[in-house]
Amino acid sequence: MMDVFGAALLDYQNGNYTEDIGTFSSLDEEDRMPLPYLFRSYREMPALEQKALQLCKGKILDIGCGAGSHSLYLQQKGFEVTGLDHSEGAIETCKQRGVKNLVCADLYEFQGQKFDTILLLMNGIGIVGRLNKLNQFMNHLKTLLNPGGQILVDSSDIIYMFEEDDDGGRWIPNNGKYYGEVEFVLAYKGEKSKPFSWLYLDQQTLRNTCHAMLFNCEIVRLGEHFDYLARLTHQKH
Description:
26% of the residues lie in helices and 29% in strands. The protein has helices spanning 4-13, 35-38, 47-55, 69-76, 88-97, 134-143, 203-212; strands at 21-25, 31-33, 60-63, 81-85, 101-104, 115-120, 145-156, 181-188, 191-192, 196-199, 215-222, 227-234.
């Protein structure tokens, strides 16, 4: 199966930009992911992302580093940062852009190193896929975190995408799934990715999960469109 995301990033990096990535989701019609946005500078980033980068400290792991914009900025600020992505094309793009420490791997296969900051931006919690995998995800992140370390993660509550009923509530399909679980397919230059699950997590569900797993959860900043930045720290026993 073609690395659709990575192929698009490499094309843009190498001056072959002719189209954006198409995104098809279980929620709405086709949308586009503009490639230039993935190569943005710090000044072009939303305030929520800028805040996350300002809060970074120590040795940093950038999970789902994509085109490497966050890693590059932190590296230029003098931080020791490792970019992690399972897309070979994304990792090659980061390499060409000058990110020094890179790992091409599935997150759950990555182990044996510890970090002071774990960064998950651009709806970074999305890689969990499904709500019932959130505990496994948090447990794995624990193994990668130094004592006193932090996880900086953003997400969006997509409740706004569902129809409002007469009493102000939202009509959510009763299909046994959490409403923030969305299926996606990416398309680029006639190729399509395998379908994959992507999680949008509301603040309260994140707080409840953190509480159960002995993490402190601080909502650091609210974005402009139902999105938020959270800082998670492991509670001391």
